[in-house]
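Recall the central idea of this unit: under ordinary conditions, the amino acid sequence of a chain determines the structure it adopts. In this exercise we apply that idea directly, starting from the sequence alone.
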Amino acid sequence: MTRALTALIVRDLKLAARVGGSGLLGLVFFLMLITLIPFALGPDLNLLRRIGPAILWLAAVLATLIGLDRLFQADEEDGSLDLMRMSDAPLEAIVVTKCIAHWLTTGLPLALVSPLFGLLLALEPETMPALVATLLVGTPALTFIGAIGAALTASLSRGGLILAVLVLPLMVPTLIFGVSAAQTVQGGTVPFLTPFLVLGALSLIAMVTGAIAAAAALRIGQ
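Accordingly, the structure predicted from this sequence is:
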């Protein structure tokens, strides 16, 4: 079973690289938001620096949604999802595997390039490590929460908008604690570790509940 799940990750990574993947589109969308928002806010660097972590986290949430509707839809269209349902591997494990592949092509690149994009928001260098850490820990929660909506809309030809409506409210707690943890480095009475641990707990909870809920939705849609 381990070999089959590893092969599934490699397959999804190859497909993402072959067709351009949602990761590249997510990075482009991420860059567009980071570039346009400073123009809307004006030349106030202090304001930009203060809300910079919130802008980066909001851009990460929206960029994660790009291509998320294809997480199971492509497999539903070509019949691969039926084979996955009939395989010996638990459907929950397959959901976790596909979410890991999606995070490797979407969440991980966003976290790694966030220091570079943070320079566009006038962020201080000491803020960058905390920002990267929060994105690395928090973006898996976004992926697993999004997997629930992707499973529910797998049989719909244009379920992207419905998916966003379903999962965005569920992503709000992750967004709140991710921004709180990143902003503690800029000053405040709350230590960094407090919201950071809550953020990690949210990712673990999302991994369990997201895998179970998405697998149940795929079974219902069979």
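The radius of gyration is 18 Å.
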